[in-house]
Amino acid sequence: MVLKLHLKKEKNILYLMDGKRIVGQSVWKEENNMSQKLLAEIDKIIKKNKLKLNCVKKMEIKSDIPAGFTTTRIAKIVAKTFNYAIKVS
Fold this sequence. Notes:
The protein is α+β, with helices and mostly antiparallel strands. The chain has a single domain (about 1-89), classed as ATPase, nucleotide binding domain (Nucleotidyltransferase, domain 5, 2-Layer Sandwich), CATH 3.30.420. Helix content is about 40%, strand content about 35%. The protein has 2 helices and 4 strands; from the N terminus they run βββαβα. A 4-stranded mixed β-sheet has the order 3-2-1-4, covered by helices on one side. β1 (about 1-5) and β2 form a beta hairpin. The chain is globular and about 30 Å long. The model has no long low-confidence stretch (mean pLDDT about 90).
C-alpha cells in the first residue's frame, strides 16, 4: 500500500493505493491547517480500511502549489519522516 497526497490550491486529497487501485480516499478543504489535519487524516484513512500502519510501504506527495508555501513544506517533511520511519523499522 502507498499513501499519496495531492496538494491543490483549494483542497487536499489523500489516497490509499494498492498498486494502481484506490482503496481509500480523504478530501479536505485547504485552510492553511496542514499541521493539524494531515496526521489525523492519515490515521483516519488507515483505520477506516482496517489496516495497520506497517501495511503502508511509502508516502508520496504531488503538489500543484509552490514549494515555498508552509502547507507544502509540512506535507513534504511528514512524508520524508514517514518514509524514513518505514525503512528503519
